[in-house]
Amino acid sequence: MGRCAKNAKRCAIGFLSVLLIMFVVWIFPNHKYNGIDISHYNKGLDWSSVKTDENIKFCIVKATEGESWVDGRCVDNVKNSNKIGLKTGLYHYFRTGVSGKRQFENFDKVLKQCKYDIIPVVDVEEKHNDLSLGGCANENLDDLLECFKEEYGYYPMVYFGSWDALNTLPVVTKCKWWLRCIGFRNLAPSTIQQVGIRKMHNSSLDLNYCSDISSIMVPEK
User: Fold this and answer.
1) 107: how many CB neighbours lie within 10 A of its CB?
2) Residue 124 gets which letter from DSSP?
3) What whole-number distance in Å separates Cα of residue 142 and Cα of residue 148?
4) Distance (Å, rounded) from C-alpha 2 to C-alpha 64?
5) Contact yes or no for 95/66 (Cβ under 8 A)
6) Given Cys at both, which of 5, 91, 140, 168 links 131, Cβ 3.0 to 4.6 Å?
């Protein structure tokens, strides 16, 4: 085999190796995490164990859902998170067919009862929601976001639990994003990525990663 042919073969092998490495990095889960999100389902959570986990720097707690439901463990979860020194946030589960203004009022009541550091979040999921409502879903979500902006001076973050939700709700371009990326890595620009679910601290916890926690803190007035 001539020198040119050998060099071409080496280049081809090198190129394919780079592609393989890029594919592996892209497709496999990102196991790095530095935060958790919790709700009333995590009633067995051992906060003393969370405190000793050096990876966990922040915790985002479920507060409300729809126009009237309130997580009964929210206030205690927020207090426990603050007590062990975690940066703490709250989230609202968005219902597509419910007035955005009424959903904001439900969320706002709980926010005003809690001490938090992280920008509040609106959780947009596919499950239990009819995202085919299209314009209605967009209108209600936009109303919620604008009510929040009017009251607090900044937009909440938006969490997407499915790519369908992300593609169906274009009104969130003005917000920071938190994406469910379990099984994948860096598929789209986002401030937080949900990277896994793991049994730990006597509870099944959602694991999240934020490369710059200062970017998700409530803006100073």
Assistant:
1) 28
2) E
3) 10
4) 70
5) yes
6) 168
Residue 117, CB half-sphere, CA atoms under 13 Å: how many?
15
Domain 31-216 CATH (choose: 1.25.40.10, 3.20.20.80, 3.10.180.10, 3.30.160.270): 3.20.20.80
Tokens coding 12: 């081809």
Q: Is 34 helix (H, G, I), strand (E, B) or coil?
A: coil
- At 128-155, the pLDDT tens digits run 566 555 557 788 999 999 999 999 999 9
What does pTM read for this prediction?
0.81
Provide the mean pLDDT of the chain.
83
All structural domains of the chain with their residue ranges: 1-28, 31-216
Amino acid at 54: E
Residues 61 and 90: beta-carbon distance below 8 Å: yes
Q: What is the Cβ-side half-sphere exposure of residue 185, based on CA atoms within 13 angstroms?
A: 13
pLDDT in tens, 164-201: 666 666 788 899 999 887 655 545 567 999 988 888 87
In the chain, where does DSSP find H-type helix? 3-27, 47-52, 74-83, 100-111, 135-152, 163-168
Return the bridge partners of 192, or none.
178
| CA Rg value for the chain | 21
Task: Name the pairing type of β-strands 177-180 and 192-200.
Answer: parallel
Cβ neighbours of 115 (radius 10 Å): 9
Tokens (6 digits) for 39: 């709700």
